[in-house]
Specification:
Number of helices: 13
CATH architecture: 2-Layer Sandwich
Order of helices and strands: HEHEEHEHEEHHEHHEEHHEEEEEHHH
CATH superfamily: Nonribosomal peptide synthetase, condensation domain
Helix content: 40-55%
Amino acid sequence: MPTLSFYDYAFLLTETADSPKHVAGVQIFRPPAGYAGDYVSDLIETLKERPVGSPFDFKLKGSLLSKPEWVRDDNFDLDYHLRRSRLPRPGSRHQLMELVGRLHSILLDRQRPLWEIHVIDGLEDGCFALYVKIHHSYCDGATLVRLLIETLNTSADDRRIRAHWEATHSATFSDEARDPGSTVDRGVGLFRRTVETVTDLSGLVGRMTMQRLGLQPGHLPVPFTAPKTRLNSVVTRARRAAVGELPLDELKAISKATDTTLNDVVVTICDIALTRYLRRHHQTPKGPLVAQMPVSLRRDGNAQMGNQLAILPVTLGRAGQDPVRRLKAISRSAAEVKEDAAAMSPDAVSIYTLAMQGAAQAGELLGVAESLPPLGNILISNVPGPRVPLYLWGAKMVSAYPLSAIPPGLSMNITVFSYDGKFDIGLIAGYDAVPDIEALPQFVEEAFDALRSATQRHLLRSRKTRTKVRRRKTQAAKKRKTVSQNKKLSKPPGKTLARKKELIATKKKSSARKSRKRSSATGANGASSKKRARSATKPKDAPARSKSGGARPAATS
């Protein structure tokens, strides 16, 4: 039978009544219009006809001295896992989340397969909800979302139904015993991975030590150096839940305008909202908050059950910082942390996560968590979902709110799920640690408005700056052109102009020579030499001839 990985086993080892380790989701559906009959009752009866498949009929078997393994439950009872609840009138969303908070507080029974589905009807707008929870040793949040999506259709006319507990091609546990490689190959591979992991971890510890001493800069925040706030209060088994929504298109616009990722925008909005929440309770952190951010370690095409993720610390923004500058700072911090993690092997990152979370969990189990500096202040997870509406037996899924486990040392978890043009936000917190959790969605909306307004101002300033730059460039170009023209006028004539002047001077000289020749050939009276020769040979007393050829009479005195 499949065995648990050490990562999955860690969620069982660290689970207590005050710290349950299951993930969940709340899906809200609107029944098809004009349905004749009780839609919820008919849906439940139809779902019960679907067979259960592996691994949803697996339960744990083991002892305190050995690592448990998954075995088939021969006495599987679907009625235990599929339950129905009805909200009291008026069936508001607030009442729904109160019920979900209570359901999320209860541990899953380890004598049975570790999952439950609660069908909740009676919502005032005619909708009903599904609350699905599954133990973290089964899967991580991203895997749960994938399993839930696989049960839905993309058309309201598609009435095919597939239950959450049916077997799918991806819902399988990995089994190391089925590895086709030889024992020697597996041993060599394990030795190589061990060497890489030890090398990466020793280098990480050395860098963090130098960073803590101020001798070397680093990107990964040093563990247990986050500021202590009311978000690090000790939690008991009771839970409170709240939900919110944000428009996806406007978040994408902010991301594009600021050249950051969509996840950076979401984390910044949560950071601003939490800072305002702390200010409302008269708390100002001594430094930036530190968020624990889950990062998937799955390779492409790997859709098996179980956990393949790391939790990395990311330094958030400073209180009072401009929202856009805050976003830029968080974006840089997240990119640098991911870059450092990418340089390590997946095994090293997983062991680092287990070591840090295990140390924090030990502090809770020993009752010294309040005297220790916190590992972080908040866990923020962003799970991508479908962009189109989905349907269950003709009922449209209106919203899908993810709810996860609260990490050790923290009081609250925020998980975001993108679906059908919006971000659905699920918040889960300790009942006494965050008694006013229903106010946090309003703080999230206010933080979104603040970041959106700051982004618009940023764009306006950028346009004005670009306009000024273009104007300055135009003026500089005109100035350069004027200077160039002035230089052309003031500088010595070029070769072409000199040649023209030379030709003009040559023509003038030639004209002057011709003029001198004419002057030398012309007498004082202006007659030419030929005319003077003719006048010299003509007799003085010869009568002048008229124009008509006759002799012109001599003048009389």
